[in-house]
């Protein structure tokens, strides 16, 4: 086994630095020196839910440099800059995997942490560490021009909003509304605008109106203002809902125009839907999660070509507890990224 250093929760939900074991490289593996790892709300939730009976190493959106390759690796060489997201393996055989949608693998994809390795059955440990070993098929070449620190959150937040934007043919002439301006929402705005659409932000208060304009939105609606919501009825072709807490989606369905779609991305629990809210206007309700390999590679290249990257605040990994506390308080605009070099 290989050893590296990382931030881990063992007997409690608190993180501490310590030694981690990584597998020796299999023929199709690469070893990645993790330089930057994004901090996601799901990391915070995983720590809150941690039962203390196992080792938890969060982190599923990171960039780094290849330091070693397996005997059969053809796509990467030592020194290549790469990115890794929240999926590190899949069955490769089911209908979804064959369609390039490994994120919907019928056997469930192997997650970057908290997943079950498909070869030895061990629990995967995430990117809050200085090294990660991954199959070459689930690593992505980082295009030139993408800053590695800013690019890290593209591997989760970026691909999560990219998939529905592409699936719903967002482009010139399409009217997009984004509900919630956080880690997902601000990237949804940037990507929609870069694809040629017009974007409007919907938020509970006007606090982020200036940010919305800076990000490229040409409209802003306060969701608690009934007059504004009424005036915006049936104004959008696509509504991207990034709210992570349970909420009523009926007000947002009313904003969807004829044959339009509400895509719920932030909350994956049970929601109540009145069929009449879909019936009037032939509206559609959809969702998405992460992305397959072709879509992820496409997203990275698009971001490099169009200059789209998240707004990030980079902190040394030793400040991970501070970052988690601030994330819990929504005190970030719009994504924390940990610099892992202090683990050397």
TrEMBL record:
EC number: 1.1.1.2
Alphabetical keyword list: Metal-binding, Oxidoreductase, Zinc
One of the Pfam families matching this protein, by short name: ADH_zinc_N
GO molecular function: alcohol dehydrogenase (NADP+) activity; zinc ion binding
Cofactors named for this entry: Zn(2+)
Domain spans labelled Enoyl reductase (ER): 11-338
Gene3D superfamilies linked: Medium-chain alcohol dehydrogenases, catalytic domain, NAD(P)-binding Rossmann-like Domain
Ribosomal protein keyword on record: no
CDD domains: CAD1
Reaction equation(s) it catalyzes: a primary alcohol + NADP(+) = an aldehyde + NADPH + H(+)
InterPro entries assigned to the protein according to its UniProt record, in alphabetical order: ADH-like_C, ADH-like_N, ADH_Zn_CS, CAD-like, ER, GroES-like_sf, NAD(P)-bd_dom_sf
Keyword Oxidoreductase among UniProt keywords: yes
Family, similarity comment: Belongs to the zinc-containing alcohol dehydrogenase family.
Protein name: alcohol dehydrogenase (NADP(+))
UniProt source species: Brevibacterium sandarakinum
């Amino acid at each position: 086994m290989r050893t590296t250093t990382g931030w881990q929760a063992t007997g409690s939900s608190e993180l501490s630095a310590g030694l981690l074991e990584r597998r020796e490289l299999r023929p199709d593996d690469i070893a990645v020196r993790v330089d930057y790892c994004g901090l996601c709300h799901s990391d915070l939730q995983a720590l809150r839910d941690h039962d203390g009976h196992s080792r938890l190493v969060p982190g599923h959106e990171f960039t780094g440099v290849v330091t070693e390759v397996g005997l059969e690796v053809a796509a990467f060489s030592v020194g290549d800059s790469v990115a890794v997201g929240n999926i590190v393996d899949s069955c490769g055989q089911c209908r979804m995997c064959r369609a390039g949608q490994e994120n919907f693998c019928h056997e469930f994809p192997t997650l970057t942490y908290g997943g079950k390795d498909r070869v030895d059955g061990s629990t995967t440990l995430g990117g809050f560490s200085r090294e990660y070993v991954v199959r070459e098929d689930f690593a992505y070449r980082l295009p030139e021009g993408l800053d590695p620190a800013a690019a890290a959150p593209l591997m989760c937040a970026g691909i999560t909003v990219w998939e529905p934007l592409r699936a719903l043919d967002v482009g010139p002439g399409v009217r997009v509304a984004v509900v919630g301006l956080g880690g997902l929402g601000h990237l949804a705005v940037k990507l929609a605008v870069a694809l040629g659409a017009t974007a409007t932000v919907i938020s509970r208060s006007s606090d982020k109106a200036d940010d919305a304009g800076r990000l490229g939105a040409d409209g802003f609606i306060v969701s608690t203002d009934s007059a504004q919501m009424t005036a915006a009825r049936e104004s959008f072709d696509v509504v991207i809902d990034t709210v992570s807490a349970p909420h009523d989606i009926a007000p947002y369905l009313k904003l969807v125009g004829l044959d339009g779609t509400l895509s719920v991305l932030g909350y994956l629990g049970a929601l109540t839907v009145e069929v009449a809210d879909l019936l009037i206007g032939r509206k559609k309700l959809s969702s998405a999660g992460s992305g397959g390999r072709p879509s992820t590679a496409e997203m990275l290249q698009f971001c490099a070509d169009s200059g789209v990257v998240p707004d990030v605040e980079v902190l040394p990994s030793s400040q991970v507890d501070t970052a988690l506390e601030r994330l819990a308080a929504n005190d970030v605009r719009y994504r924390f990224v940990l610099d892992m070099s202090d683990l050397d």
